[in-house]
Write a structure and sequence with these properties.
Shape: elongated
Oligomer: single chain
Distance between the termini: 51 Å
Bound molecules: NADP nicotinamide-adenine-dinucleotide phosphate
Helix content: 40-55%
Number of domains: 2
CATH superfamily of the largest domain: NAD(P)-binding Rossmann-like Domain
CATH class of the largest domain: Alpha Beta
């Protein structure tokens, strides 16, 4: 077994006990982050094997800080974090609210919802909030501190917001506060999904088009195409770190090379009409950005 990593946050969250409902990608990430910073973590999920997986991961870097419990034991905890699928958040809020001693603070981790989804807990006197990591957390992850240094969208009632801030600070993260109202939550989440999901889809379309131009077949062609495009992306990301978006924009749209753009559209139309549509849809935005270069 690998030796435990140094504890990044020391005991910043000592004396805090947080219940985590849902031991998937996000539940695991919070369990690791909180336990490594001194908090006690109580875990529950639908399947006991999900709980065991997270307990094993926490045990490797912060032994003794986490335990699996029954759902009923979430009553009276300092705080509970709901890390379940979006369509289960409301149901679990109602279940927690029906507990004889509902938690003092409850957050959910869903980007799309505001705190309104936790209304049943508010109705029984709980402080409610949102603690959404603006990160892509895959279900298979081996990172020991996936949330450290991340950006978090937070909001909520006084005590829930104050405790969320304490956690973000212990994670050495940055906070985003949204304007009040569910419309802000939806727009914020749409922006995040457009980039993280859209980026992978855009990469897929580009990989497939590039692979077809290589003198190689099938998987080999796609592997090489993805490696090549990732290297191109690294240079774009490096430019974005030091330049404005307009100045980081390169390519024929930015140069106003209309004949080249028309040639690209025709080439894509021949092999992948969806990729052509994507190129057409992004054209006006590239063109607008190019004007500010
Ligand atoms: N993944 C990301 O990148 C990411 C980033 C930010 C926010 N989020 C948000 O975080 C939340 C969780 O997402 P996730 O990616 O962690 O999903 P996930 O990996 O699919 O995990 C969800 C977990 O919820 C558990 N669960 C489902 N229904 C349940 C129920 N009725 N009672 C108890 N546990 C239940 C499942 O339990 P079992 O395994 O026990 O069946 C599963 O482990 C979602 O709201 C999502 O939008 C996700």
């Amino acid at each position: 077994m690998d030796p435990p990593l140094p504890n990044p946050g020391g005991a910043a969250l000592e004396r805090l006990t947080v219940g985590i409902v849902g031991c998937g990608a996000v539940g695991r990430a919070f369990a690791l982050g909180l336990a490594r910073r001194g908090a006690r973590v109580r875990l529950w999920s639908r399947r006991s094997e999900s709980v065991r997986g997270v307990l094993d991961a926490v045990g490797r870097c912060a032994p003794g800080r986490a335990a699996g419990v029954e759902f009923e034991e979430f009553g009276g905890l300092d705080a509970v974090l709901l890390c379940v699928h979006d369509d289960k958040v409301g149901e679990l809020a109602r279940r927690l609210a029906a507990h004889p001693r509902p938690p003092g603070v409850t957050w959910h981790t869903c980007g799309y919802f505001g705190i309104e989804i936790l209304e049943p807990l508010r109705a029984v006197g709980g402080a409610c909030g949102k603690l959404h990591p603006l990160l892509a957390l895959p279900s298979e992850s081996h990172l020991e501190d996936p949330l450290g240094g991340g950006v978090f969208c937070i909001g909520g009632d006084g005590e829930a917001l104050a405790l969320a801030r304490r956690i973000v600070s212990a994670f050495e993260g940055r906070e985003l506060l949204l304007k009040p109202g569910e419309a802000s939550d939806r727009l914020y989440h749409a922006a995040a999904a457009l980039l993280s999901g859209g980026f992978v889809a855009l990469l897929d379309a580009s990989v497939k088009a590039l692979a077809r131009s290589l003198d190689l077949e099938g998987e080999q062609a796609e592997t090489l195409a993805q490696e090549a495009l990732q290297s191109l992306l690294e240079s774009t990301r490096a430019n974005l770190r030091t330049s404005s978006r307009g100045k980081a924009l390169t390519g024929p749209v930015a140069r106003g090379a209309e004949a080249v753009v028309a040639g690209h559209l025709a080439a894509l139309a021949d092999v992948d009409p969806q990729a052509e549509e994507l190129y057409r849809a992004l054209g006006p935005i590239m063109s607008r950005l190019g004007r500010y270069a």
